[in-house]
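Hi there,

I know you've been waiting on this one. I reran it after we fixed the sequence typo, so this is the corrected version. Both the input and the resulting structure follow.
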Amino acid sequence: MSNIIRGPAFVVRDNIDTDQIISAQYLTLVPTIPAEYEKLGSYALCGLPTDPYPTRYVDSGKMKSAYPIIIAGRNFGCGSSREHAPIALGAAGCAAVIAEGFARIFFRNCVATGELYPIECRQRLCDLIQTGDELEIDLDRNTLQLIKTARMIDTQPLGEAKPVIDAGGIFNFARQAGMIQK
């Protein structure tokens, strides 16, 4: 994966749970079947209420989102332990979620599946950035740049999780490292 991620952001607030990320009714879709993986992406963040989020993450009738970056507040990915949540976001084209904090199981599922980078930032970005703002994430420098103002913000390093995500998840990482047979 590239070490630079650039594109418009989709902004959400605190406590976005896995039911909002991918509703339980879509958990019958099997991510290892390509057509069903693609369909999972079309439902990413479909559980968000429309009043606070009138802009939809994936437009109706589309399979991919126009937003490769999600900016969130605290406790992103709370709720159930479903690994469909990061898979649906990844299938929709999300490359990274930058949040003040993640639910531990969601963070681990991001690493295990290799679908997207869960990046923590101590600053409350959901109060600073608006949906549609153009951003650039540098995974090597651990920075986020707001393109319209050129403002640079430090993010937390991914550490040992980054090479696992780069490899496409824990099983691909283990295969590449010779820990399990290809």
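Quick highlight: The domain at 4-176 is CATH 3.20.19.10 (Aconitase; domain 4).

Best,
R. S.
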